[in-house]
Structure formats: structure tokens, C-alpha cells
Amino acid sequence: MSDDKVQTLKVKRSSRLSGFYRQTPESRRTRLVESRWLAPEEAEACAGLGGFDEACADAMVENVIGLHGLPLGLALNFVVNGQDRLVPMSVEEPSIIAAASYAARLCAEGGGFAVTWDEPITTAQVQLLDVPALTAAEMALRARSAELLAEANGCLGAMCARGGGARELEVRVLDATTLVVHVHVDTRDAMGANLVNGLAERMAPRLAALTGGRVGLKILTNLADRRKVYVRVTVPSAALASEGFPDGTAVRDAILEAQLFAEMDPYRAVTHNKGVMNGVDAVLVACGNDWRAVEAGAHAYAARSGVYRPLTAWKQGPAGELVGLLEMPLATSTVGGAARTHPGVQRALKLAQVTSAVDLAGVAAAAGLATNLAALKALSTEGIQKGHMALHARRVAAEVGAQGELVEIVAERLARERVYRPERAREILAEEVRRKEAAR
Ligand SMILES: CC(C)(COP(=O)([O-])OP(=O)([O-])OC[C@H]1O[C@@H](n2cnc3c(N)ncnc32)[C@H](O)[C@@H]1OP(=O)([O-])[O-])[C@@H](O)C(=O)NCCC(=O)NCCSC(=O)C[C@@](C)(O)CC(=O)[O-]
Ligand SMILES: NC(=O)C1=CN([C@@H]2O[C@H](COP(=O)(O)OP(=O)(O)OC[C@H]3O[C@@H](n4cnc5c(N)ncnc54)[C@H](OP(=O)(O)O)[C@@H]3O)[C@@H](O)[C@H]2O)C=CC1
Known about the structure:
The chain contains 18 helices and ten strands. The longest helix is centred in the last third of the chain and has 24 residues, at about 355-380. By secondary structure, it is an alpha+beta fold.
């Protein structure tokens, strides 16, 4: 990135872009330039497929026959650790970006999202089978732990030079003849899967020799519980009041009841967590990260006690405010993987002003807490259908052939009628087309 662009990005800007959602994609890009979020050529590069082409795709995965697009939107109103952030989200489901923006606006009233994180530790597992004497094997590994870590770091010169490297060796007993060795590695801005998988393969013969065991699998774990992110928000109860629900305290209490439901019932907790992953995954997809890895880790973490539980906790604060907390493993990257091959990924990271992998984890987790709050607020008041379906109506309108301003007109009428069937959309579209022709 050129110095003038770095300067541009350092300028303090607001993430509150009033009326943004009523603009066209082109005028939104112009707005981003005017409000100094993007340089003109960067905004222009967002249009269409954003520079992603068949050659990029062919270098990325196998047997490519074409490209498959997804929308790239921006969630607004985010203040993360005191800094205004735009949050890039790529997702196929309507209402998620609106929901994130809405909840972020509520959270901003309490000071925004306070985010902290663990060091970016990714863990390799080496399975050792048929170990003849478990206790002796464990002792041998523990006695050699410093030496083994030094050997590991010997293979990780570049990673150590940037402040990462192997940090700890852990031995776990799985059954009477099976051990698993965990090598915890700080992989800095990389997710570190390829790095630690390679390390595990290199270390395995030595670990087998020390224990007398036979090498089994050598692979990272996606239960990245040494790489967690923690987010906290405070929403004044008054901010929760909305049309038809003037008592913010009652809305807060309804959200607390929804939280209790998720804590008592895994069937509900899964859906509650889907609302969290709405935000997290959309950010990860926009930023070219491995969302399957994060999904797998998130759900395993939610079930760590043996019972599947919500990833977020909503409580009442001392002054009657609503306090929200999210704690989850979140292994992100700003280098490696798709960041190398997808031109849109670097742009998304710049838009969000992401400075490191852990910073990206913080932004994604803030988005997750926001989408969870928006869903709980909607569910606890008017129900999910009103807001969600009103936005879904735009998709129905487009499906039946509405274009340009007719998309909004048809969608608005469907939402007013609370009918979202394509047949009705078709009728409305025909009426509106006739009306337009008559007016000419
Ligand atoms: C959809 C809203 C936000 C409307 O909510 P509303 O109160 O009708 O919105 P509003 O018109 O008062 O606007 C409030 C703010 O929302 C945003 N907003 C409003 N409209 C738009 C739009 N068109 N495009 C972009 N942003 C929009 C925007 O930030 C706006 O602020 P402003 O800029 O005006 O100051 C609300 O109803 C909501 O948050 N609903 C929840 C939607 C949701 O969770 N969708 C996910 C699908 S359901 C699901 O997958 C998860 C679930 C529900 O199962 C999880 C669970 O069970 O826990
Ligand atoms: N179970 C799973 O989750 C699995 C996931 N994967 C996939 O692996 C990929 C991620 O692996 P990963 O090892 O992260 O990616 P890559 O191998 O693509 O790239 C990471 C490398 O980038 C280099 N690098 C440059 N700058 C930095 C920096 N600032 N911080 C850290 N590293 C830097 C490092 O190499 P150097 O130190 O040599 O410079 C690092 O090892 C994803 O595509 C994922 O989908 C693969 C297998 C299994």
C-alpha cells in the first residue's frame, strides 16, 4: 500500500454513514471515497467481481469451470476499542448486514465493543499409538520438552523472527496405550494450519522414538481454545426501546429471558449460536478466512462442558443496562490462504482497517455479538419475520423480474401486506409496470 493510502486510512472517520442503505452500490462507493474510507481507485476496484477472475480462481481450487459470486456489504456503526470500523460482510442471507448495523448502533450508545484476545496460538496434535509404558513415555516427553521446543523452533526460523514460534509442549493420555502430544505454536498473522501440520510431521518420528509408540495422525486441532477472543458490550436500557415497544427495560428483560432459554435448552442454544455465526462467518468469508475451521471450533467450544451452550451471555448490569459477552475460539489470518490469491480479501481487510490476525478476530467477534443481539431483540419484541422478511421481500421482487426502483416498490408493498409469495410479487410487479406506463 502506498504511503498516501496509509495516511488516508489513518484519518479518524465515522462508521455512521447515515442513509447509506438507501443509496445505490455505485453511490455508496463514492460515499466511501468522500468520507475517506477508500482511495478512488480502491473504491472502483470493489465494483463487479472486484478483480477476482478465472485465473485467480483456477490458482485457488481445483477443476474450476467458472466463478461464483456473493454480495460484499458493509456493516456500519461499529466502534471497536474506541475506534470506528466499517465491517465487511459477505453473505447470501438478507437482513444480516442490516441487523449487525442496527445492533452496532445500539452498542455504540454504551461505548461500543470492548475486545481482548489471546495470543494467536495454533496447536498441532501428534497421535502416538501402542505406547508400551505410558507413564515412562509421558515423563520422557516432559523431561525433553525444552529440547523438543528448541528443535521445533529450529524449523520455524521465519516465524520466530516475526515474534512467533513453538511455545509449549503438552502431553495428553487418551487411553491405556495412546498418547497425544500437543505442540502449541504462536503463528502470528497466519491461521497456521499448513505451518503446524508440517511441524507435526517433522516432529513425529522423534516423539515416537522417545515414547516407543507408533505414529498415528499429525494434524492441527480446530478446537483453537488457546486462541480465544473476548467481547463485551453495554447497552443502556433506554436505547432498547423502539416503535411499539417503548419500555426499554421490558425489552432488556425479554432479552434476558431469551438468554435463559438458550442456557436451558440445547435446541435453542444452537439457533442462538447460529445468530452469532451470522456475523462471524460473514466477516470471515469477506476476509478470505477458513470459516469451516472457525465453525467447527466454535461449536466444540460451545459443548465443552458436555452440554451444548450459548456462546454469548446477556446479563443485567449494575445500573440496569444490558451487558453482553462473547467468548469463543477464533483462529483468523491476514496472510496465507486466500489472502494471497483473492484481490478482494486485501481490500476487505483495508476497509476494516485490520492490523493483525487477532485484530480481525476481534472485528469478526464484535460482528457476531451484534448479530446475536439484533436477533434476540427482534425475537423478544416484534418477532423475526417483520424485519427479516421485509428485507427478504427485495429478493422475492428481484426473483420475479423487478429491476431498478421497482425492486424497492414491490418489496415495500409485499412487506406492507406481509405476504412474500412470488405469485403475489408477480401481480404487484405487473400493476406497478402498468402504473408506470400509464404515467408516461
Ligand atoms: C432488520 C432490522 C435491523 C430492521 O429493524 P428496524 O427497527 O425496522 O430498523 P430501522 O428502520 O429502525 O433502522 C434501524 C437501523 O437498522 C439498520 N437498517 C435498517 N434497515 C436497513 C437496510 N435495509 N439496510 C441496511 N441497514 C438497515 C440501519 O443501521 C438502521 O439505522 P439508521 O442507519 O437508519 O440509523 C431488525 O428487524 C433486525 O435486526 N432484525 C433481525 C434480523 C436477523 O437477525 N436476521 C438474520 C436472519 S434470522 C437468523 O438467521 C438468526 C436467528 C434469528 O434464528 C437467530 C436466533 O434465533 O437467535
Ligand atoms: N483443519 C484445518 O483447519 C486445515 C486448514 N487448512 C488450510 O490451511 C490454510 C491456512 O494455513 P496457514 O499455514 O496459515 O497458511 P499458509 O501456509 O498459506 O501461509 C502461512 C505462512 O505465511 C507466512 N507469513 C508471512 N507473513 C506472516 C505473518 N505476518 N505472520 C505469520 N505468518 C506469515 C508464514 O510462512 P514463513 O514463516 O515461512 O514466512 C506462514 O507460515 C487455510 O487455507 C486453511 O483452509 C489446511 C489443512 C487443514
